[in-house]
Amino acid sequence: MEQHNEEVQIDLMEILFVIKRRLVFILFVAIIFAVAAGVGTKYLINPKYSSTSSVYVLTKESVLSYADLQIGATLTSDYIELITSPTVLETVIKNLKKENELSVKQFKSLITVSNPSDTRILNITVTYGDPGIAKILADELTEVSCNRIEEVMKMDRPNIFEKGKVDTVPVSPSLVKNVAIAGILGFMFASGVIIVAHLMDDTIHSAEDIEKYLNLNTLAAIPISEGSEADIRRDNRKRRKGDSFFTIMKRRFKKNKKSAK
Questions:
Q1: 20 vs 261, higher pLDDT
Q2: pLDDT per position as a tens digit, 159-201
Q3: DSSP labels for 76-136?
Q4: Which of 145, 87, 136 is nearest to 113 (CA)?
Q5: Does the reported pTM lie above 0.90?
C-alpha cells in the first residue's frame, strides 16, 4: 500500500512539474480565452436591462400582525400565479400593442416576481433588451396585475408604491464574470491538453523512464555537456566530407594505376 501511494505521489509531482514547465503557454492560452470572451461579451451579446415596480398587497382594513404576515406569505404564491397568468400577460401585450413582438410565452420568460421575507410586498421585475421598454412593460404589468388581483381575490386593490425606473446599467451579460470564467476554462483546457500529451508520450527521456517502461536497470549514464550535440553533428559532417574526398582520391588513384599498366 505504501509503495502504491508513493507511486501516485510521484506521478502527481511529475504532472505538477510538467504544468509548471509549460506554465507560460498555459497562461497564454488562458489570456486568449479571456480576451475572446471579453470581445464576445462586449460586441456580440446584446445587453439586457431590468425595471422593477413594487406593490403592497395588505388591505386598508387589515390590522398588521404576525398572523397577517404568515397569511400574506401563503398568498404570495397565488399573487405570483395571477401576475404571470395568460390572461394578465395577454392584456398587457394588447394594451401596449406588442402582439407582433412578444408572445405570452416570451413575455412570461422576461418576468420575475419576488417577495421579501416576512412582508406583503411584491417586486415585479421585467428584463428586456431596451431599458425604456423594460420600464413600460413593468409598469403596465403591475397595473393590470393589481386590477386582476382585486377582481379575482375580492380584496382591495394592491397599492403601487414604486414604479419602474429606466436602468442604464445592463444586468446581463456580466463582462467580469464571463472573462473570469473563460480564463479559468482556458487554463483548464491548456493544462488538460499538456497532461494528456505528457501521459501519451512514451519517448525515453531519462534513466527513470528506462526503468519505468522497460523494467531494465541503468548501469551507467554518460552526461552530455552543452554544445556536445552540436559538436557531434559538426564532426559527423566533417567526417562525411572527409570520406567523400578520400573516396574520390582513391578512385582516381585506381584509375591512374590501370592507365599505367
A1: 20
A2: 899 999 998 888 988 899 999 999 999 999 999 999 888 888 7
A3: HHHHHHHHTSHHHHHHHHHHTT-TTT--HHHHHHTEEEE--TTS-EEEEEEEESSHHHHHH
A4: 145
A5: no
- Give the whole-angstrom CA distance, residue 13 versus residue 21: 12
CA distance 63 to 192: 64
Residues in the chain: 261
pLDDT of residue 141: 96
If one counts the domains in the chain, the total is 3
Residues 33 and 91 in one domain: no
Residue 165: partners with Cβ closer than 8 Å, 6 or more residues away: 51, 52, 135
Same domain, yes or no, for 241 and 136?
Answer: no
The model's pLDDT over 81-127, given as tens digits with 9 standing for 90+, comes to 899 999 999 999 999 988 778 899 999 999 999 888 777 889 999 99
Q: Which domain covers residue 249, as residue numbers?
A: 222-260
**Beta-sheet strands, E only, within the chain:** 49-56, 111-114, 121-128, 159-162
Q: Residue 129 pLDDT more than 50?
A: yes
Cα 164 from Cα 111, distance rounded (Å): 13
Question: Could you tell me if 98 and 34 lie in one domain?
Answer: no
Q: Cα(174)–Cα(176) distance, rounded to whole angstroms?
A: 6
> 250: which residues sit within 8 A by CB, 6+ positions away?
none
Q: Are 116 and 144 in contact (CB under 8 A)?
A: no
